[in-house]
Amino acid sequence: MPADRQDRTSPLTSRAQRVSPRDLAAALLSLAAVLGASPVLAQATKPSPPAATAAPVKLDTVTARRGDIRQTVDSAGKLQLHTWADVYAQIGGQVKEVLVAIGDTVQVDEALLDITPTQQPAKVESNRAQMARLQADLADQRAQLEFAQLQFKRQTQLKAQNATREEAFESARMNASSATARVDAITAQIHELEATLKIDEEARQKTLVRSPIAGTVVSMAARTGQMLAAAQPAAPLLRIADLSEMTVAARVAEDDVTRLRPGMAASFTTPGYPGKHWSGKLRQVIPIPADGTGEQGKQAFYTVLFEVKNPDRELMSGMSAQVQFVVAQARDTLLLPAKGLGAQDEDGQYNVNVLDAGQHVAARKVKVGLRNSQQVQILSGLAAGDKVLVGPVPNVLPAPDAGTTSAMASGS
Hints:
Radius of gyration: 55 Å
Domain CusB-like beta-barrel: 248-326
Number of strands: 17
Helix content: 25-40%
Strand order of the largest sheet: 2-9-12-11-10-13
Subcellular location: Cell envelope
Number of helices: 8
Low-confidence stretches: 1-17, 37-45, 399-412
Domain Multidrug resistance protein MdtA-like barrel-sandwich hybrid: 85-235
Mean pLDDT: 82
Protein name: Efflux RND transporter periplasmic adaptor subunit
Family: Belongs to the membrane fusion protein (MFP) (TC 8.A.1) family.
Strand content: 25-35%
C-alpha cells in the first residue's frame, strides 16, 4: 500500500481495528445486564395504555309539539241503501215482458214490466157495449118523459077549467112519474157501469208496472212468463234504489254509545279503497240493542246511522266500514305522546320529568285535556320543544358537556 494512503487512515478506524472480538462480546453482555436490571428503563420502554372513557347513558325522551288531536269512538259498520222502493204487481196476470235489467238506471214512472191481465179483454168490450145500450135507452126514456110531462101539463090546465075527467088527469100524472123513474133507473145503471169501466181502465193501465222513484235496479225476481197473483207476492218483483247516497250502520258498544250525539262528525274507511276516507254527520242512534246483543249478560251494541254522499257510485251496499265518531277535537294545541305521562296525583295532574340541554332532570306537574291512545293535550306545565323523559330517572346521568357548561356560564 502507498505511504500517502496509510497516512490518511483515521485514528478511530485504527482503534476499532485493534479491538478484539472477545472484548466486543463482553461489552455487549454488560450493557444488556444493565438495561434489564433497571425497572425505570423497562417501564420507559413499554407503551402507556389509552385512558378509559365512560360509556354514555342512553335516555328515552319524547318532545312536546303543537298539533291537532281528536278524541274518537271507533266501531265497525256496514254500508246499506238509504233510499229504495220495492215494486209489486197490482193485478193478476202473466208477465209478458221484462223491460229492464239489474244495474239499469230508470226514471220516475218509467215502465218496468208488461203484464197480460187475467181478466179477458172480451169482458171489457161487453161492458162498453152495455154502456152504449144504456145510453140509448136513456135517450128514449127522456123523450118519453118529455111527452108524459107535456100531457100532464095539459091535463092540469084542463082540470083547472073543469074540461077533463079526473081519470085522464091521474093517468097523465102517473105516466109522467113513471117516465121520471125509468130515466133515474137507467141513469143509475149508467153510473154503475161507468165505475166498472173506470176499474177496467185502471186495470189496463196497471198492466205496465212503473218505477215509483228514480234510481238503479238493484234486484229482480220477475221473469218472462211468470204468473202473478192479484195480491202482493211475498218478495218484491224489483227493487229500485238511489245510489247517490248511502247509509252507514255502525255497531257501537254500550260503554261508548252514551258519548254520541246527533250531528257529530263521522268518518270511515273501507277495505275496497285503501287510504280513502268518507265523512258524514251522525243522524240517529237506534235506542234498542242490535239483534243478539244485551241478552243473558252479554254486552249490548247499538246501531248508529249516518249518511254519506256517493256521487261516483263507488260505495256499494254490504261493504264493511271502519267508523270513527269525533267526540271532541282541538287544533294547533300543545301535544305530548301518551307514554311520556307519569303517575296521576290527587289533583288530577300528572308527573313528568323534563330533561334540559345540560342533561339535568326537573320534575314538573302538567294538566291534560283531550287524550287518545297515542297523544294527550297539554293545558299547562310544558312548552313546545320540551323533552320529557320516558320511564324512571336513571341513577347515573351523563355529565354535561364541558363546552356547553362554559358557554352557559359565559352567557349567564
